[in-house]
Amino acid sequence: MENNFDFEQEEQQISLQDYLRILYRGRWIILSSFLIVLLATAYFTFTTPPVYEASAKIMVESQGTMERALFNVNYFGNQTTLITNQVEILRSRALAEQVVRTLESASYRDSLQIFQPNDEGEYMTLRQQVTWIQRHMEVAPHKESDIIEIRFQAGSPFEAAKICNVIAETYRKLNREFNRSEFRELRQFLERQLREKGEELRKSEEALKEYREKQKLVSLDDATQELISRLAETQAQMEATLVELEAALEQKKNLERQLEERKKALSVEVTQVASPVLMELQREYARKVSEKVTYETLIAQEKVDPQVYQLKLRSMNNQIKAIRERLKEEANRIANTSMIADPLMIAQNLVSSILELETQIKGYRAKIEALRDLINKYEARLALLPGQALELARLQRQLEVDQNTYILMTEKLEETKISEAGQKENVRIVDMAIEPLFPIKPKKKLNLLLGALIGLGLGIGLTFMIEYFDNSIKNPDELERMGFPILAIIPEISTNEISKKIFSKNGDSGFEYEEGRLIETRLVTHFDPKSPISEAYRTLRTNLQFKNIGTGTKARAVLVTSSAPKEGKSTTVSNLAITMAQMGSRTLLVDTDLRRPVIHSIFNLKKDKGITNYLLGKNTFEDVVKPTIVDNLFIVTSGPVPPNPSEILASDGMREFIQTARENFDMILFDSPPVIAVTDAAVLSAFVDGLVLVIKAHQTQRDAIRRTKHLLDNVNATILGCLLNSVQIEKTYGSYYYYYYYHYYNYYGADLKRRNRLKIL
User: Fold this and answer.
1) Which of 313, 240, 250, 316 is closest to 73 using CA atoms?
2) Tens of pLDDT along 480-497?
3) Is residue 592 a contact partner of residue 680, using CB atoms and an 8 Å limit?
4) Predicted model pTM
5) Cross-strand partners of 559
6) According to the model, what pLDDT value does residue 87 have?
7) In angstroms, rounded to a whole number, what is the distance separating the alpha carbons of residues 108 and 102?
C-alpha cells in the first residue's frame, strides 16, 4: 500500500514557539558562552592599565597676519580654512619634535613614560618618541567657532595634563615666531635696500659737490630747478613702485613655494591659470593704473583745473577699486573650480592669493611704465640745456631721487619695525589642561555590558548554528510537518529510577546485566505501571487498537521497526506487548530480529526453540511459544541465528506461523531489524497488517526517515504511524501538553502512594 505522506509540509513556516524551543534546548550553550565572554571581558577590563585624557582649548583668530600689514595685501581665505590649517600644524611632525625637545629639558622628565625604558630595558628613539606623541594626541576643532581642542592620553593624570599643556604652549610659541618671521624677512629686505640707497645717496652728494667745485656752478634757474624737482619726484615714485613690485614678487614666490609643498601634482603654473574674463580684467586694471599715473602728472604741469582734477581722480580710483573687486571674485571662482582642485582648502586659498598678487604685479608694472614715460619726457627737456647746466641738472636730479627714495625706504622700515614689535598673536590658550580625575579607558561598565551582550549573542548564534547543522528529529512537530502521523511520544527512560523500583520489588535477585546495565529496566510498564512513561506506552496501545488499516479492519499483526540501530524498537515492542497483555488481550511477542536478537534477554528467557526452529520444521508452534511473568503475554524468541535470515523470514512457513498466531492470540507483535540496514523488515511487512516506525529524538536523521519511507513504499508496506522515542522533557520546551501530562501523573502516582499508606494504617 502506498503511503501518501506529504513531505512538502516540512517547509512550513517556523513559528515563534519553535524559536523558543531552540533557545531552551541550547540554554546551556548560551549560558556558557555568556559566562565565558563576560569573565574574559572582566579579566581584560580590570587588568588593562588605565588611560587618562587631559584636554586644553585654544582660540585661533584671523587677525595679526602679514597679509594685512604692508602694502595692503589682503588675505582671501575664510576662517574655516584657517582653522583647518592650524589643525594640520598641530598634527605635524615638526610640532611633535619641538614638544619632545621641550619635555626633554623639563624638570619632571623622569616622571614621563616617553623617557622610560620598556620591558627589555630599551629606550625610545627620537622618531619613536615623536610617533608616540602624535599617536596619543587628538586635535578636534569645534564647529562654528574659532576654538580647537587638544586632547592627550597617557597612563597617569599628571603626564596627560603636562604633555597636553606643553603641546598647547609650544604651538602658541611657534605660531608667534611664524607671524613675526614674516615681518622679520621684510625688515631685513628693507634694511638691505636702505643700505644700498644710503650708499647711492652718499655717492650722489659727493658727485654733485665735486662737480660744483670743479665747474664753479652753484645753482640753476627756476625753470630748470622746477623741471628737475618734477623729474626727481617722478623717478622717486618709480623707485618706490619698484620696491613694492619686488616685495610683491618675493611674496608671490613664497606663496608659490607653499603651494608647491601643498600640491605637487599641479600640472600648470598658477600664472598660466586664468579665464578670459580674468585676463581682460587684468589688462583693464593695468590700463586704468597707467591712465591714473599720467593724469596725476597733468596737475603738476598746471594743465588741468584742480577741482576738475580731483573729481576725475576720484572717478579713476573708484573704477580701479571696482576692477579690483571683480578680480577678487574671479580669482576666488577659479580657485574653487576643478581647474585647480586640491584636497586641502589651503591650496585653493593660496591659488586665490597668487592670482590677486599677479594682478597687483601687473598694476605695478603698468605704473612703472607710465612713470618711465614721464621720466623720458622730462629727460628729453633737460637734454635741451647747455652742456654744463645739463650735467649739473642731472647730478642734482639724481641727488633728489636718492634722497626721496631713501626717505621712503626709511619710513617703510620704521613702519615694519613698529608692526613687528606690536604684532598681535592670533593664537590664545583659552583653557589649560588639568589633571583628570577618572580614566577614560577601560570603560568598565560599558565593557561589561558589551561583553554580556556579545556573550549572549554568541551563545544564541552558536545555538542556532548547531540547530541549523543538526538534521535530527527533535520534537513531534517536525514529524507532523513531514507528514507522519504520531502514535505516541515516549519520554526518555531513567535507568536509575527503574532500577530502584526493581530492587524495591524483588530485592537483590539475580538479574542479567548487559554492558553493566539492568536489562529489566527496559520493562518500565511492568515495574512502574503508574509512571508517565508507562502511560505513554498505553497511549500507543490505544492508538494502535483504533487504527484501521486500508480494509477498514483493526491491525492485529503489527511489525515494530526503525530506520537505524539503537533507536529503541526492542524496548518499544516489549512495553507495547506488556500494555496489551495488561488490558487482557492474549498477546504474542515474536523476536524476528535474527541479526541481533534481544527480546529473550529483556524477559530473562533462553532463546533456544524459537522462530527459526519453527520455520526450519524442527519444532511445533506450541513448542516455541513461551509464557512470561506478565499475564496474557507470550514470547517466541529468535532461536539459533541462521546464516540467511531474509530467506527464512520470506518462506511459506512464516505465513503459516502468522496464520496460526492469529487463531490463538488477539495481538501479534514482531520485533525486526532496522529497515535501512537489512531487508528483513521489508520482507516481513508483506505478512503483517501494518508497521510502526520507531524514531529516536535527537538521533534519527531526516534523511534516514526519507530513505526508510522510500524503501517501505517500494514493497507497499502499510505504515500505521511513528513513535517518537527518548524525548527529553527539558529539551522539548513548548510541548505544553506533555509538560502538564508529566506533572499530572507524577502527582497522581504520589497521591496513590499516600492513599496506600493510609489503608495500611
Assistant:
1) 250
2) 878 788 888 888 766 665
3) yes
4) 0.53
5) 670, 691
6) 87
7) 11
